[in-house]
């Protein structure tokens, strides 16, 4: 177990920088999730920590050692790959023992560790099977077991659940969470799935185009997104974000309506973000956003209304109560709940 | 599967006829001839022949020259297969590491396969000819008394080298394909598990290449047994003495040079049995080994 420090970490391929300086301290035992759309550099970042990708600038330390120039095997880490990367010609037992054998650990100790991991992951009946005779979920657990037995300083997981079906993914997610609570391993976890990110993480790194847009707890990321990108990426359905014009403390909506909003700049354009679940229906007459519904999806516990701001083409998604009677063509007046208004700079995308 | 039924009986036979004709004319007929001749004794001019039963086989199998050829063949085949496989695997592994010019490197590696055996033989003969060979002179400068025309072991080394050189391309191709089929993440996982490159090669890559390696082993053995006639004929002609006379070469020598048709035919029958046994072995073994999950 150890803490990990990333210090202005950069990566370039043939002169093209793809990771633009990431700095973060991960404390001992913390579960950090790197989340972002595909191509944002999240896997590259993890592979840099693992030592599978070179570092163009900056430093990585694991424990108190700078590991920049160390081989993966010298970094005292374990990794779970998206495709599991199990050795197909070895049994489950041999797969898990492979690293320990290389470390010249006594046979009794290897057996004990493999047995312990197998119990924890409910793999005992399969120890002598080859990976091809296992289901996807079992293979995933073997990959976890292979990482666990080594009792490394840090645990790296690269989209470990994305090859599983939806139901199994939920199960394994809970299991990973539980494992982390039991072992207290420092963990770095890459995913593009925001549900995994929000549920597993102690802290999130939200990445976009090689930049860490925000490093914070899931709660902070959700309630105080640092940029328009983070606001749009985290949360489902996605936040409604549109441009309004500020005029002396009043926002002029795309449809021309005027809405008093706290925290507006004196003048100029600003990006306004409102989460579908933060919108409340208000009486006509009070300051509100008029929305004309185009369709309503009823999901049981609640419903989602999709419409446009009256007089414009700006789409709005609203979360409505499950007993709603709203239907296509209805005109709803909605306002944002107190303190749930997000304003971003149109130029930089940063939170205002 | 749906079966197509032809309306009349002649058409299927007509469609098969070209292939059947080729097989009949170029395999069954000569094979039958070989069987017939192997139990006959014929005079060199082919004017008379008499039935002698298995006498030819008995004679061949008791002939020290034949046993010598058998031994030469085993030595030659094992050496060629071993070096052709080993060097090709080494080169394929190195080729995987190249980042720029991979395609060029691979193309260059494959060229020797396009050279006809006899030409390859001549190439090596010229390079290592003791009196004017380009590479014979430096060898002598190194203090090696290079003369494959007199020294049987040197002659063997020369034909082994020529035959190996020609087969490396083929093996290289298969090994490159085999290596590409191994997911990169396995090697990364091994690196993280603490394996050095060498250890990962022997514990991960080599076992996963086993189906390819085995297939190539059988193909190379058959190649060394039969397809190297041209090289041996061009480089040493089976000499000096009989030191590079393989089984195939002896069939040719006894039949077409010494005109002992019966002996030659008996030898080809024995060879045929060896090929059939090898092929059967190959199919049984490969079917068990080739699939990996």
Structure description:
The complex is a heterodimer of chains A (352) and B (293). Chain A has 352 residues and is of the alpha+beta class. Chain A folds into two domains: 230 residues, P-loop containing nucleotide triphosphate hydrolases (Rossmann fold, 3-Layer(aba) Sandwich), CATH 3.40.50.300; 95 residues, no CATH class. Chain A has eight helices and 20 strands. In chain A, helix 2 crosses helix 3 and helix 2 packs parallel to helix 4. The mean pLDDT of chain A is 90. Chain B has a domain of 197 residues: MetI-like (MetI-like fold). The model of chain B has no long low-confidence stretch (mean pLDDT 83).
Structural Rg of chain A:
24 Å
Instruction: Report the end-to-end length of chain A measured between terminal Cα atoms.
Output: 39 Å
- Percent of residues in helices of chain A comes to 10-25%
The CATH H-level superfamily of the largest domain in chain A is P-loop containing nucleotide triphosphate hydrolases
Question: Can you identify the CATH superfamily of the domain at 63-259 in chain B?
Answer: MetI-like
Summarize the main sheet of chain B: 2 strands, antiparallel
CATH class of the largest domain in chain A: Alpha Beta
Strand order of the largest sheet of chain B: 1-2
Overall pLDDT confidence of chain A: 90
Order of helices and strands of chain B: HEEHHHHHHHHHHHH
